[in-house]
Amino acid sequence: MKLLPALAGVFLCAALPLAAHAEDATKGCTEVKVDGYRSPDYDCLSQQLGTGQNADKAAQKNTEAQQVPV
Questions:
Q1: pTM
Q2: Would you say 22 and 38 are in contact if contact means Cβ atoms under 8 Å apart?
Q3: What gap in Å lies between CA 11 and CA 45, rounded to an integer?
Q4: What is the rounded (10 degree) CA torsion for 52, 40, 42, 47?
Q5: Which residues contact 32 (CB under 8 A, 6 or more apart)?
Q6: Distance between CA atoms of residues 41 and 12, nearest Å
Q7: 24 contacts 33 by C-beta, under 8 angstroms
Q8: Closest alpha carbon to 29 in 38, 42, 17
Q9: Residue in 69, 59, 62, 23 with CA at minimum distance from that of residue 32
Q10: pLDDT tens across 35-59, in order?
């Protein structure tokens, strides 16, 4: 009778990798969730937003705007 719980445990451990899988990372940027707070990957978001034809111009304007004294 002790064989049944052991087999059930082995089966559950073998099925665990199938049940716990990561989301498909090709959809977009990866987010990290710690204690209920989400933190997006800002480098990835910046790359996604900066792939247009005006990306260099926008980056230059952002740099200039950061240099303006408040």
A1: 0.30
A2: no
A3: 41
A4: -30
A5: 38, 39, 41
A6: 34
A7: no
A8: 42
A9: 23
A10: 888 887 777 777 777 666 677 787 7
